[in-house]
Design goal:
- With 464 residues, the protein is an alpha+beta fold.
- It has 3 domains: 235 residues, FAD/NAD(P)-binding domain, CATH 3.50.50; 120 residues, D-Amino Acid Oxidase, subunit A, domain 2 (D-Amino Acid Oxidase, Chain A, domain 2); 79 residues, Glutaredoxin.
- Helix content is 26%, strand content 27%.
- The strands form 6 sheets. Strands 1, 2, 8, 9, 10, 11, 19 and 20 form an 8-stranded mixed β-sheet that branches.
- Strand 15 and strand 16 form a beta hairpin.
- The longest helix has 22 residues.
- The chain starts with a helix and ends in a 6-residue tail after the last strand.
Length: 464
Amino acid sequence: MDRQRYTSSVDVLIVGAGPTGLALGIDLARRGVDALVVERGAALAPGSRGKGLQPRTLEVYEDLGVLDEILAAGGPYPTGTVWTDGRQTGEHRIFDPVQEGEEGSRFTVPWMVPQWRNQEILRARLEELGGTVAFGREVVGVDQDADGVTARFASGEEIRARYAVAADGGRSTVRRALGIAMTGGTIDPDPLLVADVRIPALDRDRWHVFPPSGRGASWASICPLAGTEDFQLVARFPEGTDIDLSPAGVREAIAERTHLTAEDVTEVGWSSDFRPRAALADRFREGRVFLAGDAAHIHSPAGGQGLNTSVQDAYNLGWKLGAVLSGRAPQALLDTYEEERRPVAEHVLGLSTAIHRDEARRGAGTRQLGLHYRGSSLSEETRPAPGTLRAGDRVPDLTVDGVRLFDRLRGPDWTLLTLDEGVFLVRPDGHVGWAGESETGAAAYRERLGLRGERSFSGVAPRG
């Protein structure tokens, strides 16, 4: 893009081209919003990083139009194999199996896709919709007034936006510029080495777990990355260790903790050191600037919740920005972003921290299908005796009169849904906004939110 593009204006400036920023860019692009994603790096971030996509995120990806590519690029998680002194001594199931009666979804287990590939797929979809990622654009400051936001780049250039979203990670420059603090901190003093490696001698059908040996070395796990020839290494080190991230250092870490030799590791790609933290931003909004993803909440990777919660931040914020920018809803709608997402992030942070400390399991809660907004000011339940599906709930993936509900709900609009247990106005993010026994009262709800032109579908839902 040319210099003039950066000195002009956009509706929404998205800072950061990780999964959060890219997903938000897609959601806004399909609504016709003029949004620009800027990234300080010269390319998308490398590395497998957050590799697990939970069932609810797969539903979101289906709506955003990337599900087929995501499914083709990855695979299910393998069963864990425990090694002791070079022998397989047990199995470890990473996730609890789905129990009968859990929330309806076509997706029941997490799907593994290395984050670098996830980002490539999201970027391709964004560009297909006419959106853009501008690389090498580091935001170093933001100012705002009643009409918009001015972002300053390290180059000295500026861009004007009606709204801005900080999706620039746990060390968010934008969050710091806004003076928003985070509450929390380190939950484990022992640092982790995370790296992408190739080990042809190792079986790719198992997630290999190496508990601490008698030699004093800490544990390691080596997980085959679906859709690639790589493994993701996670190796724990004692508190205070200055981890060697060089290829030689990565090979040495594997040789110390496993029956493998340094020579068995034929390639070392991306590597990083990581200190498990749990922290929550004190607020998710400052005027016309919003925080999303790791800029708003930082998770232990143990529960596979961070990336997934981040993408769903984008999914919640996208339709609200689109409605306000198009004039179909008052600006007050944007207040509900923090109202809805901060409690969810706080809850999920508690879950991922508990899993890190072996105080909880990777069960139904980690799949994120049961997260709801029942306490939101947008959720209006008018039935004296609500059924299973209530205002604020995610609509389950049901087939009604031979029609899949998600096929009717897909897209950026509201849907009026009539089922045998009531009438529901379903938000663009698949959650019930208003619920009643009939359409009486729905008009007042529409007026309050400035809604118009929703789709409608009637059918008989299967009971239970």
